[in-house]
Design brief:
This protein is mainly beta. 5% of the residues lie in helices and 39% in strands. It has one helix at 32-38, and strands at 5-9, 16-20, 25-29, 43-49, 53-56, 59-64, 72-77, 83-88, 94-98, 112-114. The protein binds zinc ion (ZN) (2 copies).
Length: 135
């Protein structure tokens, strides 16, 4: 069976991530730390076993405590600052990759959304916002 290969990269392209196969999890988080990391009400995160992820490019690690008391190592591109991938203390054998860094649009949708109480009310009904395929 052929496994799907997908590529993610930061804005400048210095940090590249290749994933093999389907992620183990796909989720949204809107906790304060995730909102500050992304500048967005959502942090869409997908997790692969570390054996299925290949990372290239220099990063600077920013360690944050995490709201549940468990740490996260966020790996920022040394040039553009994009945090393409990170690792949770709670999931030490998995690599987390931000969904927005992929060009692929066939990633599995989130199966759970955490910290919805931290989201602006309008985000609960995105379908109500007039949408254009491109700007
Ligand atoms: Zn970069
Ligand atoms: Zn979060």
């Amino acid at each position: 069976m052929t496994q799907t290969i997908r590529h993610a990269r930061c804005a400048c392209g210095a940090v590249q991530v290749q994933t093999r196969g389907e992620p183990k999890r796909s989720m949204l988080c809107s906790c304060a730390d995730c909102r500050r990391k992304t500048g967005s009400p959502f942090n869409w995160t997908l997790y692969w076993p570390e054996a299925d992820v290949m990372v290239t490019g220099a990063t600077k690690t920013f360690r944050r405590a995490g709201q549940d008391g468990r740490g996260v190592d966020c790996n920022l591109c040394a040039t553009c600052g994009g945090t393409v991938w990170w690792r949770l203390d709670a999931l030490p054998r998995e690599i987390a990759v931000g969904g927005g860094f992929f060009d692929a649009t066939d990633l599995p949708p989130p199966t759970i959304a955490y910290w919805t109480e931290s989201r602006p009310a309008w985000t609960l009904d995105l379908a109500a916002i007039p949408a254009e395929a491109r700007q």
